[in-house]
Structures are given as structure tokens and as C-alpha cells.
């Protein structure tokens, strides 16, 4: 998936669905905007998104509001580590990412285990936890 996960209302649910439909042994690759890891570049990129891009958009676009959304959605999107944790949390293994363009974009990848024992462990880890039902007092028929 490229530049789309960020636009989904519940991205963790979407990741879980990707994991569900992926064949055992399959791989998912997600290309998405991210946070540059170096502070100086992150600051410069943030300034570009806040000040330069709006000027360019106003001069060239017929729909500047779309670019306002773009800047907001990129700013609000989590960093590489967080997205990797989300992927692990829904059961993907061998999760890794590679920063592209100094971290402005990151390519994440993960695998759905083919081994049944690993699948069982990840299913246990990702299954919703249920609290035991409270004991209800029984009525004495006497």
C-alpha cells in the first residue's frame, strides 16, 4: 500500500485486516510519509510544509484545501517506530523499515508467519482479551 494507510480512519484495524487476508508466508509492504529522524532535517522539513508548500500551492493549485489536509495528515501520522509496533501488534513478524528521502518517506515491510506454531503464538498475542464473566447469584428453587 502506498500513501494510503494514513488516510484510513482506523489504520490498526486496516493492518489487522491485511494480516488476516495475507496468505501464510506472505509479505506486506507499506510506503508512507514519516518523520525524518535527524532533528535538523525534521525542522527544515516542518518549516517547508508550514511555510513554503502553502505558497507554492496557492500559486499553482485550484484546490489548496486538499494540500492543507495533506500537510495535517503527514504531521499527525506516527513515526517509523510506532508504525512498526502497530504491525507487530497485529501479528506481522520480521517487521523492518527503510527510510527514503532522509526519512520523509519510509518503506515498512512485514511477514505473515508460515509456521503453524508461530501463527498460533501471534494469534494468542493479538486475540482480544476477555474478562471472565462475573458470577451471577443463582436463585434457590426452595
TrEMBL record:
SUPFAM superfamilies: S-adenosyl-L-methionine-dependent methyltransferases (SSF53335)
Ranges of biased composition (kind: Low complexity): 133-142
Source taxon at top rank: Bacteria
Region (Disordered): 121-142
Keyword annotations from UniProtKB, A to Z: Methyltransferase, S-adenosyl-L-methionine, Transferase
InterPro entries, sorted: SAM-dependent_MTases_sf, UbiE/COQ5_MeTrFase, UbiE/COQ5_MeTrFase_CS
Name the UniProt record assigns to this protein: Methyltransferase domain-containing protein
